[in-house]
């Protein structure tokens, strides 16, 4: 088990699915965990599960789009558990399916705002405190559309690509001060979000490939991303800070390949060298 003794972790979107598994893995490694989301019942359930296993956790209900609320929530975490060592931005919204002219503009923008602004809001509070202590890790979850087109999922894809670039910028800004940022793609996991894609009329009409992927047996256990993030929190993959790691990765192979990935500038958003020559 990864050793996270003496650390404090914050997990957003921690009330269910991938976020709950991340929170449990952080606790099993020895971290004290703050579970954040809007739905009080769900985050209290996660905190309760951690308590049943002998861990320490608190549930903090917060709207991550509300800047002042995020500031207050993270201060409450520090007051209750201590300074934050690991921030995991797992929260996500994907409700706008279809061509942009068929999407409700408010729902489309809501996906972008929750995903991107929520990540910005937590990071802007946590990073300075981490820098003051000379250590810390921020993990931002990305996903479909990060590096490729996502037809009929443009809001989600745009937000995730932006989070990837945000992660790179953040890491380049903070790494000299001992704070590292990572992006993690958990892979296709069956969650409440994918259930909406599978069962809503808009999802069936515009994202039929999601059902096909599940039918083909592609369903990554949430424990894969959770175990990876626990290793990130422990420092195992610091050489890949600023880059994207994946839940489907074999972690031992990833560790062996770290130097080569960094040397090739892999796992990052980049314009090809050929394109750069034409600029």
From TrEMBL:
| An example Gene Ontology molecular-function term | oxidoreductase activity
The transmembrane residues are none
**Which keywords appear in this protein's UniProt record, sorted alphabetically?**
Oxidoreductase
**CDD domains (alphabetical):** SDR_c (cd05233)
Write one Pfam family the protein is assigned to: adh_short
> Per its UniProt record, what SUPFAM superfamilies does this chain match?
NAD(P)-binding Rossmann-fold domains
Keyword Oxidoreductase listed? The answer is: yes
Q: Which InterPro entries match?
A: NAD(P)-bd_dom_sf, SDR_fam
Which residue positions does the secretion signal occupy?
none
Q: Which family does it belong to?
A: Belongs to the short-chain dehydrogenases/reductases (SDR) family.
Q: What is this protein called?
A: NADP-dependent 3-hydroxy acid dehydrogenase YdfG
